[in-house]
């Protein structure tokens, strides 16, 4: 259950149109808004001390202890080509699970959980299809929210790290 997120569900905005809809966790890095499907985000944590791991890529910040489980922390700023910075107390960690592993992703701010219809969520245009990390784009009023592909962005990269030199 998404217990850490339940308080936001009451604030989740209803879909703007009829049809099938999905919930997304909206978050910010620098001045850009991003989203991940809610089904992939198991928890949201306040920033905690991250233990650095030597000889890892820059985008791998280190590890944390979450309820007795060692979780790898990923610096999403770095992965998205933005300037990395030291974590701040107001930052958040999104706990994201795949079938094989769980990771924590450092973000500047978690904005909300929102529901969007399929009409609002569109695949990247052909010009943007080269981006392996972009799963879709959500149009919300005048804003564009980039939906990230967690499998490609996080889990495929971690597999490459565990398989050998990068």
Measured by DSSP, the beta-strand proportion falls in 35-45%
Average pLDDT reading: 82
Superfamily (CATH H level) name: CheA-289, Domain 4
Low-confidence stretches: 1-17
* Total individual domains: 1
Q: What's the story with the biggest beta sheet?
A: 6 strands, mixed
Q: How are the strands ordered across the major sheet? A: 8-1-2-11-10-9
Return Rg in Å.
16 Å
Indicate the CATH architecture.
Beta Barrel
The number of strands is 11
Counting H and I runs of at least 4 residues, what is the number of helices?
A: 3
Question: What labels would you give this structure?
Answer:
166 residues; OB fold (Dihydrolipoamide Acetyltransferase, E2P); 11 strands; 13% helix; single chain; 3 helices; disordered N terminus; mainly beta
Give a written overview of the molecule:
The chain is mainly beta and 166 residues long. It has one domain (3-163): CheA-289, Domain 4 (OB fold (Dihydrolipoamide Acetyltransferase, E2P)). It contains 3 helices and 11 strands; from the N terminus they run αβββββαββββββα. It has helices at residues 6-9, 76-79, 150-163; strands spanning 21-29, 32-37, 41-46, 60-66, 69-75, 92-97, 102-107, 109-117, 121-122, 134-140, 143-148. The strands form 2 sheets. It has a 6-stranded mixed sheet with strand order 8-1-2-11-10-9, with no helix packed on it. The chain has a 5-stranded mixed sheet with strand order 3-6-7-5-4. β4 and β5 (69-75) form a beta hairpin. The N and C termini lie far apart (35 Å). The model is unreliable at 1-17 (pLDDT under 50).
